[in-house]
Write a structure and sequence with these properties.
CATH architecture of chain A: Sandwich
Order of helices and strands of chain A: HEEEEEEEEEEEEE
Distance between the termini of chain A: 38 Å
Number of domains of chain B: 1
Strand content of chain B: over 45%
Radius of gyration of chain B: 21 Å
Largest sheet of chain B: 7 strands, antiparallel
CATH topology of chain B: Jelly Rolls
Number of strands of chain A: 13
CATH class of chain A: Mainly Beta
Number of helices of chain B: 1
Number of strands of chain B: 13
CATH architecture of chain B: Sandwich
Oligomer: heterodimer
Radius of gyration of chain A: 20 Å
Largest interface: A-B, 34 and 39 residues
CATH class of chain B: Mainly Beta
Distance between the termini of chain B: 40 Å
Strand content of chain A: over 45%
CATH topology of chain A: Jelly Rolls
Largest sheet of chain A: 7 strands, antiparallel
Number of helices of chain A: 1
Order of helices and strands of chain B: HEEEEEEEEEEEEE
Structural class of chain B: alpha+beta
Number of domains of chain A: 1
């Protein structure tokens, strides 16, 4: 009975550790590597770079830069996006952000703010959270898109507060 | 082998129970919601917001006194944390022209996240609610803590109001 007790105890601990680690293992924070110009039509944001807080998530190159976010396991994910747009002294009149899941190009979440030109909006930080299910992590990935309306100069997504945080929640 | 099967089955059940308790404890054991104890006058330069008070939704997070009031948020465990800040600004009938909110990690004084909105003086903009969600790692909970900074520019005397201003801290991993 002693040996059986030892085996049972060891298996409990091993099982416990394995499952706990498995459920907690996917997350990632990504910052912009450089200020990124915003455009008047929807454009995928590239230039994402991983921080030290990354496990089981990667960003891969696409048309506009490092833009395709892949995860290593199927599951339900929460994605928190913080996009800081700055324009110096000229007006931003509208900002749109959204998250698209590929290969379907499905829009899963987003935000819109629009003001009249008289409001002289020169800084805006869009924050929103999306939830998506990844069933095929080899082929499914997501991208962040944005557009901005402005006059006369082009605003930038700033490196200071623009980031994406991904975590597996189930 | 029958008895072994029974023992194995018992160990599986025990394992299952342990896992559930461990996961529940691990994933939920550090969290805290804090409200403002009173309306707080906003400054035009970045200033730490004090006057935070714990709510009943609290486990292993504390707010300690600093220069402005109860402002230093400490957690009891190292790990990856998510902090959500909702900052409600009310300027009565006067215009706000810019508002900022930063989450600052100490003692390194690192801005780990924030939000900025800025409009011109003719904007008729008198209320704003900034929402900031940040994630960061605490490796030494005895010396590391974070504070919430804010600033509001404009005419009048804007306040952070008690109604929708709150901080929620939770340990992710």
């Amino acid at each position: 009975m002693t040996s059986l007790g030892n085996y049972a105890s060891a298996s409990v601990l091993e099982c416990n550790t394995l499952i706990a680690n498995n459920l907690k293992s996917i997350y990632g924070q990504f910052d912009l590597s450089q200020n990124t110009i915003a455009e008047g039509t929807f454009k995928t944001l590239g230039n994402w770079q991983p921080t030290t807080l990354v496990k089981g998530v990667s960003v891969q190159a696409g048309t506009t830069g490092n833009e395709k976010f892949y995860v290593s396991e199927a599951g339900v994910y929460e994605i928190d996006m913080n996009l800081h747009l700055a324009q110096g002294t000229t007006d931003i009149t509208r900002v749109d952000t959204r998250l698209l899941l590929y290969p379907y190009a499905s829009v899963f979440a987003g935000s819109v703010i629009k003001v009249s030109t008289a409001t002289d909006m020169t800084n805006f930080t869009a924050n929103n959270t999306a939830h998506i299910e990844i069933t095929d992590p080899l082929n499914e990935y997501f991208e962040i898109q944005a557009k901005a309306a402005f006059t006369p100069n082009s605003p930038y997504f700033q490196i200071d507060f623009t980031r994406v945080f991904i975590k597996k929640i189930a | 082998m029958s008895s072994l099967g029974n023992y194995a089955s018992a160990s599986v059940l025990e394992c299952n129970d342990l896992i559930v308790r461990n996961l529940t404890n691990t994933l939920t054991s550090v969290y805290g919601q804090f409200d403002l104890s009173q309306n707080v006058l906003a400054q035009s330069s970045l200033t730490t917001i004090g006057n935070w008070k714990p709510t009943s939704i609290l486990k292993n997070v504390a707010v300690l006194a600093g220069v402005q009031g109860n402002e230093k948020f400490y957690v009891t465990q190292a790990g990856l944390y998510e902090v959500g800040v909702n900052l409600a600004i009310d300027n009565a009938s006067s215009d706000i022209t810019r508002c900022d909110c930063n989450v600052v990690l100490y003692p390194s004084t690192t801005i780990v996240g924030g939000s900025v909105t800025q409009k011109g003086g003719g904007a008729d903009w008198i209320k704003e609610t900034l929402n900031v969600m940040v994630q960061f790692e605490i490796t030494d909970p005895t010396t590391q803590y974070f504070e919430i900074e804010g600033r509001v520019s404009g005419s009048g005397t804007p306040n952070y109001t008690t109604n929708f201003t709150q901080v929620f801290v939770k340990k992710l991993i």
